[in-house]
């Protein structure tokens, strides 16, 4: 028994050593991946550093994207769009471009401002109406082109709208790097909650709360009492009308189940984080909220905004269903409103535009029912109260069948059923209401009592459709959606492993249009315009050239001081020399490989 016990102990220790070695290898690989991404980010920043003046250019609507930020300008009739991501089936693109949308003119302007934040998505942006207007931005993530590696930011930036200047606020005590978090303005503080961090080794979700003072420019981590939300990302976070606290609803998280299988959880609970006491001695308290009304079905990836009269808005999203090791998502395009003062959910019911002829036709039908007309009207009214699920199928040019599930309010479903009964081509018939297609990860904001919805994505099988359409809904009239920018998702190019060479060439042209700055950072693309190629050549001439037949090690040794200097200029003086040197060496490697 003694010998057997010792053998078992040795086996256990051997397994522990093996696991420790594997963890060490994974940790080293994760660090190398972060260094590679840091080098790529630094290369992009070196390109941005060449911009010395503000250039504003009238342009078409921004390219298709999701997980960007859309904010309402505090002083002007404008919306502000920053960053985001796009995936075409083979490659992931990250953006740090800045657009202004003029509401009255329905026009777009791209603003190139020197020294912008690095490319990112899943960040948070908050508008503050002070000093001519400011756009505060925190966190987010950068992904490798193959979408397998991630770098999470913990930087804080402010865009001074009056002077068109970016400024990075470098102060200690910031939250750890993360994306999918939420940030809102509450009195004179920016409150940050939740989010997640993912690497090749592991992932972690957060439920911590941090506050940034707009007066003292300092970070502090709050320690609320009570039972708060579990760790999560992509929740709804809304400041109460009196700025005494914030509401947290829903969100998403995942854990590793048996055999390292990841299992996702969609949250549908709600919490109130309330402040108490004066600013110097304020305390925070978590409490559970049980809202009344018609609660939204469980979902993730919904868009959120704050409407008039203390109402939070929730649009769309997706509910993933796991069956037999397959993942299918039901996408939504419904709109829910939450009355923060009354703690009540209710679905948005659009009134639509009804013609006089249709009203008369409905009255005639009611008269023909005779004694049963009252009962029929009651049945119609009951049917109109609840939303109706409609499934539509669209066949794309390549033969893909897109099945889109849409939730249509009861009044609209009734109108559509009546319209089907009317003869085709009959004058005076009421038109079907226009509405955004079902989607998730769209950008939403409210300006002058109108909800604006931009972009997002939906999936059909393994294919992803990324949007760049823009819709508007008057929250006072609640009549119908207005299309400001239209897009046909069937026309979007999608690249996969089965694409032939001709499709690849066409896809590269589209990639060059949508991500020209990224191609510049990697040496350019053959499909770009001549002016962009000349710009690429000038950028490359600024770096030490690779000599004919020169090995990578020799190139790194010869140009090490130059690349370390580039890394130091982009990373700042506070970063340790060892890390700067590693990033510099990685930058040299990236440049060398691009020249081969």
TrEMBL record:
<feature type="region of interest" description="Disordered">
    <location>
        <begin position="495"/>
        <end position="565"/>
    </location>
</feature>
<feature type="compositionally biased region" description="Basic and acidic residues">
    <location>
        <begin position="11"/>
        <end position="25"/>
    </location>
</feature>
<feature type="compositionally biased region" description="Acidic residues">
    <location>
        <begin position="525"/>
        <end position="542"/>
    </location>
</feature>
<feature type="compositionally biased region" description="Basic residues">
    <location>
        <begin position="1"/>
        <end position="10"/>
    </location>
</feature>
<feature type="compositionally biased region" description="Basic and acidic residues">
    <location>
        <begin position="512"/>
        <end position="524"/>
    </location>
</feature>
<protein>
    <submittedName>
        <fullName>Kelch domain-containing protein 4</fullName>
    </submittedName>
</protein>
<feature type="region of interest" description="Disordered">
    <location>
        <begin position="1"/>
        <end position="34"/>
    </location>
</feature>
<dbReference type="InterPro" id="IPR052588">
    <property type="entry name" value="Kelch_domain_protein"/>
</dbReference>
<dbReference type="InterPro" id="IPR015915">
    <property type="entry name" value="Kelch-typ_b-propeller"/>
</dbReference>
<dbReference type="Pfam" id="PF24681">
    <property type="entry name" value="Kelch_KLHDC2_KLHL20_DRC7"/>
</dbReference>
<feature type="region of interest" description="Disordered">
    <location>
        <begin position="356"/>
        <end position="388"/>
    </location>
</feature>
<feature type="compositionally biased region" description="Acidic residues">
    <location>
        <begin position="413"/>
        <end position="427"/>
    </location>
</feature>
<feature type="compositionally biased region" description="Acidic residues">
    <location>
        <begin position="495"/>
        <end position="511"/>
    </location>
</feature>
<feature type="region of interest" description="Disordered">
    <location>
        <begin position="406"/>
        <end position="432"/>
    </location>
</feature>
